[in-house]
Structure formats: structure tokens, C-alpha cells
Amino acid sequence: MEEKDSIDSWSKELSEVYMRNLENEISDKVFSKKKNGIAIISAYPTEDYSFTGAEFKILNFSKKTIKYITFYFYGKNAVKDRVGINMSRKGIGPVESLATATWSFNNVWLTDIVQTLKLISVNIIYRLRRKSWGELLILLSLLYDK
Predict the structure, then answer these.
(1) Are strands 38-48 and 82-95 parallel, antiparallel or unpaired?
(2) Dihedrals phi, psi of 48, to nearest 5 degrees
(3) How far, CA to CA in Å, does 40 sit from each of 17, 93, 94, 101, 105?
(4) Which CATH number is associated with domain 36-144?
């Protein structure tokens, strides 16, 4: 009985160490993206009957609100070969500063062999902050008074 307890204890400790290391690795990846404006929290294929979709989750580190975001990616099969051509899907915001958002796209690939996806790039369009009509009129009058 003691041997089983020691194996259980050792297994539990090893699992805890592994989870802490994994948590630190994920944290480093997420927070190293602060300078880029966003962090990709997850990007993976989703299963559907004989089709495959894609899901993306981001964290907006920018001080601006995201209006639109376009993901460019391709799929890989079980032996890591590319499946089809580069794909793109557009997500619609808004995503406020320091908020997360998730987009799920169905039927990206008309096959069920996609196991992973490779994110190539992300294009972001931010929402412009508009001044009120009163502020714009004052600005225009100042420009034309010269």
C-alpha cells in the first residue's frame, strides 16, 4: 500500500510541476504580445460532420477598440501536411481595450481531415474616435477664420 501511495504522491507532484510550467509558458506567450496590440489566446480547427471550422480567441492589449479583424491561416492534417490553400475569415467587433473576443467560423474546409491550423497573420482595423459635431464646427471655424 505504501508503494502505491508514494507513486500517487510522486505522480501528483510531477503533474503540478508540469501544469505550473505550462501556465508560465502560456503566460509568457500571451504577455509578450503586448507590444503587438493583441495576443492570440487560441487558434484551432473545430469539428463538424465531414467539414472543419476554425475558432480564434484574442486579447486586445491596444488602447483602441477593434472594429474588424481578419485572420489568415491554413490547415494541416495528422502528418502535418498542408490541407488546401491559405484561408481568411473576418471577425466583427467591437473589442474594447483589454477585452477578449472569440470568433467561430463553420465550414472553412470541406473535409474533416484538418487536425491543426497555422495562423499566418492578422489584420486589424481599429474604430476611429469621432469628435462631436460641436467640436468639429469649432475646429472648422478656426480653420476658416485665418
Answers:
(1) unpaired
(2) -145, 165
(3) 25, 15, 16, 10, 16
(4) 2.60.40
Residue 116 contacts residue 73 (beta carbons within 8 Å) = no
Return the domain boundaries, the chain. 1-32, 36-144
Distance CA 17, CA 24 (A): 11
Does pTM surpass 0.85? no
Query: Among residues 108, 61, 68, 74, which one has the least CA distance to residue 91?
Result: 68
Asked whether the beta carbons of 68 and 93 are under 8 A apart, the reply is yes
Q: How far is CA 137 from CA 15, 101, 104, 134, in A?
A: 64, 36, 42, 5
Tens place of pLDDT per residue across the chain (146 aa) = 576 677 777 777 877 777 777 666 665 555 555 556 888 999 999 988 889 999 999 999 888 899 999 999 999 999 999 999 999 999 999 999 889 999 999 999 999 999 999 999 999 998 877 655 555 555 554 555 44
Contact assessment for residue 91 and residue 68, using Cβ atoms and an 8 Å cutoff: yes
How far is the C-alpha of 49 from the C-alpha of 80, rounded, in Å?
A: 21
